[in-house]
Specification:
The chain is mostly helical and 136 residues long. The protein has 6 helices and 5 strands, in the order H-E-H-H-E-E-E-E-H-H-H. The chain has a single domain, classed as Arc Repressor Mutant, subunit A (Orthogonal Bundle). A hairpin with a 5-residue loop joins strand 3 and strand 4.
């Protein structure tokens, strides 16, 4: 499955829009079903966010990737009450994706690795902020 950077931004947006320090896994799942009713796409992107520590379990005795379980029959079990939070890395990457010019540039990078997109996005955001602050 290919990475959809816009979909990733939409997932992080759900956390950014929350009034709480945490978000129930089920809330994230339901909000993203409104964007696109595609469980495979949701799970693929959710696991990427977990892999790169952009989101984490709110409780330190759990890990975020526990929110989705693949059963032997090939179906998924979604942990609806599972509390999640946006990490510092998640806030940083969302900041980059939330700038329309940065998002537009990242979309032009063909089939880049997720970690490369994250690194480039944050570097572009740093440059953008420096220019805005008159430091460059």
């Amino acid at each position: 499955m290919k990475l959809d950077i816009e979909y990733t931004k939409n997932m992080l947006q759900v956390f950014a829009d929350s009034e709480k320090a945490w978000l129930g896994f089920g809330d994230l799942y339901e909000r993203m079903k409104v964007v696109l009713d595609d469980d495979e796409k949701f799970i693929f992107h959710y696991k990427l966010l977990c892999d790169d520590d952009l989101i984490a379990a709110f409780s330190e005795d759990r890990i975020a990737s526990e929110g989705v379980t693949l059963m032997r029959a090939g179906n998924y079990v979604i942990g609806s009450a599972f509390p999640l939070r946006l990490t510092k890395n998640g806030v940083d990457f969302f900041g980059a994706l939330n700038e329309s010019e940065i998002l537009k540039k990242l979309k032009t990078i063909p089939t880049a690795a997720f970690s490369v997109l994250k690194s480039v996005g944050i570097s572009l955001l740093e440059s953008y902020i420096k220019k805005q602050a008159g430091l460059e």
